[in-house]
Amino acid sequence: MENLLPALLVVSLALAFDFVIGDPPNRIHPLRWMGNLLDHLDSRIDRAGKASTRLKGFFSYILLLAITVIICLGVLAAARNLIGDWAWILLTAVLFKLSFAVYSFRSHCQPIENDLRRGDLPSARDKVQMVVSRDTSTLGEEHIASCCVETVAENLVDSVYSPNFYFGLLGVFGAFMFRCANLMDAMWGYRNEKYGDLGFFPARWDDVLGFVTARLSVPFLALSIWIVGGDIRGLWEAVKADHAKTPSPNSGWPMAAVAGGLGLGMEKRGVYRMGKGPLPRVDDIRRSYQLIEISSILFVFLVTLPLYIFIGMDVQIFLEDALWGVLGG
Description:
Oligomer: single chain
Number of domains: 1
Distance between the termini: 27 Å
Number of strands: 2
Mean pLDDT: 95
């Protein structure tokens, strides 16, 4: 299997980069550049007419994806044809890593966890406000911890499973196909007068792309719960009872699974209550992101790697060759 070693190196290097280096500074992260392009488009799009505005949202997604993919695949094609396979493997791993984040959950939650251990609730409230949209100014320890556990569980699909799944199927093109939709959903996916129509397509497309991976998260979280000694029966009961309680059609699946598997409850006042257990305490924050890390690694090697070996690498190289031919390489 000629794809086996390159695929294994790409996936392993990407995970290693994520663990050792993490994300680059925001000012030089490609997602920041993509966001700047969306801001530029946002300020210049005329929102005259519902159908017209929705169509402009669709073409904005196509433009963002086209620019991103042409740059990425062009760089990879040049590396493979002008330098060699090792350069291609390294750059593919770097681009793949930029589409997902496994260990960022730890970096975001540990400072909040440390504040709670010191009893510094004002500082913990300030930090948790950066990761949730609700008002955190009056939250106590349990609701702050619940914010962390909810965020970790909710973002598992968008930050790990979906970019990995589509990378496995379509290579770098697939990873950024999802990442562009997810970024546009985050920036334009509001159901208000300004973005209700402009963000209509990317928000729905993000839901479609996350449909399979959100549901795939449940068996992988169950396997992870079995490894760490959690409550598998509670996980399945919580998923059955609570997966539809969130406004998103996808985020409730991993959230309910984490709540049930860890024997916890999660609560966003006035919106949902998941799980039959007590609200999380400070020690449960670490339990949640460690669980997510285990499930992510399992997913990468049991789903992403086989898909990339048999499908995604060939698709990626085909697209690189097609672009290289257009560029006259």
